[in-house]
Protein 1
Amino acid sequence: MTGAKVEQTPGEAVGARGKRAMPGPVDLSPLLQQFPPRLVPPSWPATQESRGQVLARVLAPPFTFGNAQYQDSARRGLTSVLTWLAAKSGDTWQQRWLASGAELAADWRTLPAEHTGWVAGRRKPYTRDKTDECTTGLMLLICADVIRPSTRWLLVTKTPKNLAASLARTRDPLGFAALIEQCGPLRTAATTRNLALARIATIMAAKGGLVRHITVGDCIEMHRIASMTTVGRPFFYQLLRSLGGFPPDAPMTVRMFGGAAGQMTVEQMIDRYGIECRPVRDLLVDYLREFLVASDYSTVLTLSYVLGKMFWRDLELHHPGIDSLHLAPEVAAAWKQRLRTKTTRTRTADGGVVETQSQRISATDNLGTVRAFYRDLAEWAHEEPARWAAWVTVCPVRDIDLNFKKINTRRKSRMDQRTRERLPMLPALVAAAEASRAASYERLHTATEVRPGELFTAGGQTLLRPILPTGAGGRIWGQDPDTGKRRDLEAEERRAFWAWAAVEVLRLTGIRIEELTELSHHSLIHYRLPTTRELVPLLQIAPSKTDTERLLVISPELADVLSTIITRIRNPDGSVPLVAAYDYGERTWNPPMPLLFQRRVGLENRSVGKASVARCLDQALADTGLTDASGAPLRFTPHDFRRVFITDAIMHGMPPHIAQLVAGHRDINTTMGYKAVYPEEVINGHRAFITRRRSLRPSEEYRTPTDSEWQEFLGHFERRRVALGDCGRSYATPCIHEHSCLRCPLLRPSSQQRSRIEAIRDNLNDRITEAVREGWTGEVDGLKVSLAGAEQKLDQLDQMARRKHTVGLGIPAFRDVAGRTSSPTTPLDPTRKTAFDTPPAADNRAGGRCTSTEQSRS
C-alpha cells in the first residue's frame, strides 16, 4: 500500500525520533459546557448614564478619598477619561471603551493623556502625572461598574493596580472581608493570598456584580485565560468555594480544572507518536477502537504504546517509507533485536552523557502483543473481509520468540530474590518509620512553642526557628545553625506520618497500592459472631484489579494504625472529609469519598496518591541506610510489601488457599508465585526424613493413646519450667544443649527472672575480666558465649516490656481444646469450647508447640 503523511493538527507536535510530544493546554470545554460562565450584556444601567450622572455618582462616597489633594487628582483623571471616551462612537460608555482600542494599545494611558492635551489646545506631550491621573480615573469607572474591560486585558495590563483593594472599598466590602477571614487560619504567603484576591477582583470587574455573584463557570473561564496569558494559579477557586455559594455538583478540587489530564481518544493515543503512514495509522485506530467496549482504558493505552511506538513508529524511524505490515526477514529480525535492547542515558558530573544497554524485561510481552495484533487481523478478516483482509499477512513474531516459560521463571527468580532480601529488613524499616514519625512530630511541636530566632532541640537535632519576613506565610521552618539550610518542618512531619501509615497498612494487610489509596471510612465494618455475639472488626477492600471485593479481619495492631489516621484527618465534628480522588489508571475523577489517605492543602482536602506514597517510602528508606545485596540503597515498592506479606503468612502456617482469599487472587498459582521459593533440597530432605521416620517407627505408635499416656503428654509441657523461664523443646525430645539454658534459643525467659539473669550477666563479666587477667584464654571464649546468651535473653525481655498495650485474644490452654481422638468436631457445636470461652489470662504456652508435636507423631 502507498504511504501517506499524517497531517498534524495545531498543538499536536511530535517529539524528536518519535518520542511523545509534550501536552498542550488542557481542554476545559466539557467543564465550561456543564458550568457556563456569565456573559457580559451589551448594556446595563450604570453604563447608560450620562456624563453628569457618572461624575455625580463617582465623585461621591464611597468612591471619594480622604486626602483632598489625591481626590483632586482623581477628579482630573476621571474627567480626562470621560472626555476621551465621549469622543468615541457608541451609545454607552462600554461601547465607547471597546471602540477606543485601549485593550489593543501597548499603553492605554497614552490615549486619554494625548487626547485631552490636544483638546485643550496645549500641544504638549503627556506627562507621568497625567497618566497616573488617568489610571485613577479608569479605576473609579471600573469600580462604579461604568465599564467592564475584558478578563484577558485585566490580566496582562500593568494598570490599574490594586484592583482588589479598590473593589473591596467601593463595591463589596463584606464579600472581601469574608474572603480575608477564610485566609486567616491558612499558612499561605501574602503573595499567594493577594494573587487570589486579584483574580476574584478581575472577575468582578469583567463580569460585574459582587463576590457572591461569581459562578463556577466564571472561575473556570478565569483559570483558562490565566493559564494562556500569565500564571494559572487556581487558589482563588478554593477561597470562593469555601464561602459555600457554589452548587453541590461544583468541582471539589481545583485540579479538576485541568491539573490532571482526562482520557484521550484512540486517535489521540496513536497521533502522539507521529506515525507518517496514514493507512497504518487508521488501521491502528480502528484496531484499538475494537477494544474500547470490552477493555479498560489503561489496557487500550498500553496497546497504543506497544503498537504505535514500540512497533510501527520504530519501523518508520529505521526504515523510512515503509507502508506494509509484511516485513522482510532482515527487517523483522532487526526490529526484534531493538525491542529486546533497552538504552539508558545517564548524565555524568562533567555534563556528558553515557549510554548503557540492557535487556528489556517487557520485550516478550510486547512481542506477544504484536503477534496477537496480526492474529486478530487474520481472524477478523473472515467476518469482515472488506475491512481487514487487505492487512492479513505473515506474522513476524514466531512461537520460538515467545518463550514465556523462561521469562516467567526468570521473573519468579528476581521477585523471590527481592522478597528474600526485604523480608529480614522489614522490622528495621518499621522501626525507622516509627522513629521518624515521632522525631518529626516532636520537632514540629517544639518549634511551634519557641519564638523566632531561638534555638531548640527536639527529635535528636538542634535547630533554629528562623525570623521570616512579613508576608512569608505562617509555615513552621527550622534552620540548621551550622549550614543555614532551612527545612519545612510541617512537610517533614507530613511525609514521615504518611510513610509510617503506608508501611503499617501495607505490611499488615498485603493489599495493593490502588486498594490502599482507595481505603475510606466506609471500609471499616464489623461482623457479629452468631455463637458468641462478639463483634469482629473487618476491613472491606474495594474491587481493584480483579473487580472482586474482599474482607480482611482487622488485627489490634492495624486497628491502632487506622484509628491514628482517622484522628488526624477528621473534622472537628468527628466526620471524615469527602475527597474526590483521581484515578490515574482510567484518568477519571472518582466520586467524593471519605478517604483515609488524604491531606489538607490550603482550603481543600486532597487524596494521597500512589506517587506520594512511593516518595514517602523512598524517604523513609533513605533514613534507614539499608542496602541490598549489591550495596545500593534498598528500595521498597508498595508491591514488595504484598509479596513479603504472602511469603511470611504461608511460611508461618497459613494455608495457601486462605492466603489466596486474603490476597484477592483468582488463581492459587498466582498466590504461590508471590511466595518466595527457598532451597528445594531443604524441602526434599525434610520430606525424606519424615518418610524414613515413619518407616522405622513401630505401627503400634499410630493408635489412640491411653489415659495415662495422654496425661503424660499434657504434663510434658508443665514439666518444662526451668529457673530462668520455660523450655520450648518438642515432646519426647532430649535436651541437646547439655542443659545450658542460658545459651539455648528455645529458652523463653520469664520477666520475673530478670534480676537473676542480670546477676548472671554481671557475674559473667567479672569472670571474663578474671580470666583475661589470669591468662585463661580458653575460658574466655566459653564465657563470652554465655554472656551473649544472657544479653539476648535480656533483649527479649526488653522487647516484651516495650509492648505498652496488652490485648487479650482469649486463646485457650492446650488441655482445653486438644482432642482425645482423631474424630472431627462439628464447627458449630454449641457445647464445644472455643477460643472466646477462655479468659485472656489462660496459659497458652502449650499451644505454640502443638504443630511441631503433631508433626513429630505423623
Protein 2
Amino acid sequence: MVAPLSEVLPTLSDTLAKDSLAITPKDTLKKPSILSDVVRYQAKDCVVISKHKKQITLYDQSKISYEDTNLEAGISIINYQKREAYAGGIKDSTGNPTQSPIFKQGNQVIEPDSIRFNYVTKKAIIRNAYTTQDENKIRAQIIKKENDSTYFLHEGIVTTAEDLSDPDYYIRLRKAKFVPKKKIVAGFSNMYISDVPTPIALPFAYYPMTESRTSGLLFPTFGQVNDRGYFLQNGGYYFVISDYLDLALTGDYYTNGSYGIRTNSTYRKRYKYSGNFNLRYENLIYSQRGFPDYSRNSIYNIQWSHSQDSKSSPLSTFSASVNLGSSTYYRNSYNQQNSSNFLNNTLSSSISYSRTFPSYPSVNLSLTASHSQNTNTQSIQMTLPAMRVSMERIYPFVKRGMPKKGLIENINLNYSLQGDNRYTTTDNEFFSSAMFAKAQSGFRHSIPLSTNFKVLKFFSVSLNSSLNETWQFKTVRYHDYSDLTNRVDKDTLNGFDRYLTYNFGAGIGTTLYGTFDFGKDKKIQAIRHVMRPSVSYGYTPSFDNYYDYYIADAFGTRREYSRFEGGLYGTPGRNESSAMNFSLSNTFEAKVRSKDSTDTAVKKVMLLNSLNFSSSYDLVRKQFSPVNITGGTQLFDNKLGVNFGATLNPYAIDANGSQMEKFNINNGGSLFRLTNANLTLNYAFSSKNFQKSKSSDNTASGGRSDDLFGAAMNTDLSKPMKEEDPDKKETEKKQRLYYASMPWDITLAHSLSYSNNNRNPMISSNSLMVSGNVDLTPKWRVGASSGYDFANNGVTYTQIRFERDLNSFRMSFSFSPFGDRNSWYFFIGIKASMLSDLKWEKNKSPDRVLN
C-alpha cells in the first residue's frame, strides 16, 4: 500500500520550493531552447498533467528517460517550461519511506533521497545520495552535479565498508570535488572509526578513483630495529610507463645510515609474453664508526621471471627464472618482505631459448644459462651458456610412417650435441676476472644406436650402443719431478683436443601379474601383485691410449694421468667395465568391498605404489654392489604419505672400517649389513575430511604449501585472509546466533635416517614437524608451526600466528619466540587498494647473527 496522492504532492512541492530558494544564482539551472531527444515518462498509479503549472506529475513507480539519463522514483514532477524533473520517495501505508529515487546516467548510478534535475543542461541538486566507484562507496548530504564529469560534495564520506548506512570506518569530507572514475579532491579530511573521530587527518586530500593503473606515491612503513635505529621501509613511487609496462621504485632508510633500494617492474603483452623484474640492493651498517664492532657491507638480490605465450611462436620458446645475489641477503635483510625466505639455502636461475627446425629429420636447438648457489657454503656453479642440439630418431631400415617390427626394422639412431661453458666460483669472485679465468668449456657429440624385439612373446629384449666424442679447449701436461725445484710442474695448455669413447649394452625384461583371490564375500576380495624384473649388461672398454705417466718424486714413482683431466665431462675410462645389472619393481593393489551393502562396485586400493630392488655385479672385479631398496605408498585415503629406503651391503668390513672381499655371512655376520636407511612420513588432514562430499585441501602459504617452516605474513590486502567457504553465503542467510563449525587443518611430517658404515650405528637425523590452523570464527584464524629435532635435542623453527578479518580491515600477527630468528610482526590495514596506505605495522626484527 502507498499513501494517497493528495497527501504526498503538497509535501513534495514544499520541499522542491525550498530547494529552489536555497540555490544561489550560480546554481541556477539554465533553460535551453531546443531538446535534442524525446522525454519519455510513465507511472504505475497515475499521470497528472497541469497546463496552468506547466508540469506533469507521475505517481508510484514513475520513470523518466532522456538520452542516456534515466530517473526512477516513487513520485516525479516534470516542469516542461523549465526543462526540469523533480523526484522523491513516497510512504507506504505504515508510514515507512519507499521507492527512493534512482538516477542513472551512462554507467553512473546515484541513489538519493531527492533530486532536482535539468534534463537539458544535465545539472542537478541531489540530497543525501550515495554512489559506488569500484570498491569505494561515496555518500554526501548535498551533491551538486555541474556536468557529466564534475560533482561538488557537501558533508560527504568515503568508505569501503559493506554497510554504508552504518560503516565501521569512513573518511569525512567537509567539502570536495568529485570526478567519477578519476578523482576526489577534498579540503580538511579525517578518519572516523565507529563514528568516533581519530587524529588521522589531512588539511587537504587527493583520492584517485581511476579503474586503470595510475602513477602515485607508495607510503613507507615506520619502525625500529635494535642495531640500526628507526627506519622507513618500502616507501617510494609507482610509475605507469605504458599499458604494457610499469615500474615501482622503493627504498628503506635507517637512522644509523643504512639504506636499501629496490626496483620492481612488471610487463605483459597479450598473446606474446609476460614477466617481472626485481632488483634489490642494501647497504648495511652495524654499530657506530669508531667502535670495535663497527662493520659495513653490501648485499643484493636479482629476480627475473619471463614466460612466453605458446601461441606467439609455436617453433620457438623463451623463458627465464632468475634468483641470484648475495648468499647472506635473506639472512641479513631486515625488510619484512624478505623474512619468510631466510630459511632458503639455495638460489637457482635458468634462462633458456629453444627452437625447432621441423624439416625431416627435425632438429631441436636449445640455449640455456643456469646458476646454482649454496648460501651456506657461498659456492656458485654457473653455466653460461649451455647448448643442446638433438636430432629426431631415424629408422634407416623402414619407410617413414610404416610399422616397425622385429630386430632389423627397429634399429634406430639419433644425434645429440652438448656444449657447456661452466664456472665454479664464490660470492667474493662472482663476475670477477678470477671467475672467468677458471672457465671450463667443451663439447660432447653422441650417436646412440639401439633396437628392441620380443622373445617368446613375453620377454622384451633391447640392444644398444653409443659412440661419444668429447672436445676440450684446455688440456694438462705434467713434467717429471725436478730435483732443483723439489716439485712436479703442471702446465695448462690452451688448444683444441678430443677423445672418442664407445660402449655396448643389452637388456631383457618382462612383466608378471599375480592375483590372490580371497572370495567375493570377503572385505578384501583380492590382492594384485605386479612384478617387473629386468636384467641388463653393459660393457665399456679401457681407453689406455689417452693416458701417460710422469715421475712423481725423487724415488722414481710413476703416476698415470690423462691430459683431459679437469675437463667438463671427465676423462676417458681407464679401467675396463663389464657389469650385470639387476632390478625388480613391485606394485601391490587390493580390491576392497564397499562398506555400503547395496553398492556392488569394488573399490581399488593401492597397498604399495612401489617396492624396488636393484643391484649389480662387476664381472671384472667379480664383486656385487650393495642392494638398494626403495618404496612408497599412500594410506588413509591418500592422507598419509610413506616413503622408505635402505642400503644392504653383502660384504664385511675390517677393524678399520674398510670393505673386505669377503661376504659378511662368511665373516660370522648376517647375509647383509644395513648401512643406511631412511623413513619419511607426511600426514595432512583437516575438518573437511570428516565432512561428506568435501575434499581435503591444505592451506598454501609461505615457502611451503604445508606451512611446516612457518607461513609468510599476508600483507597483500587484495588477497583474502583464507579460501572462501562455499557455504559461507548460505550460512549468513540463516543468520545463526552462534558459529558451531570450526574448520581446522593439521600437517605432520616425520623424518628418520639411520647410518652404520663403519660399525658405528647412529640415528643421523630424527625430526618431527607439525603445522596447524584453526578458524575459531569465520573471520578469526589462529595457527602455529613447530617441531623437534630428536637427534640434536632441540626445537626447530617455531611460529605462532593469527589473522583477523575486521570487515573493512585486516589484522595479522606472527611470533617466533626463540632461535636465531626470534621476532614478531604485527599488521593492521584497510583491505581496499585505494586506502591500503592507511595501515600500521610494528615488528621486532631478529637479533644480529654473526656469520
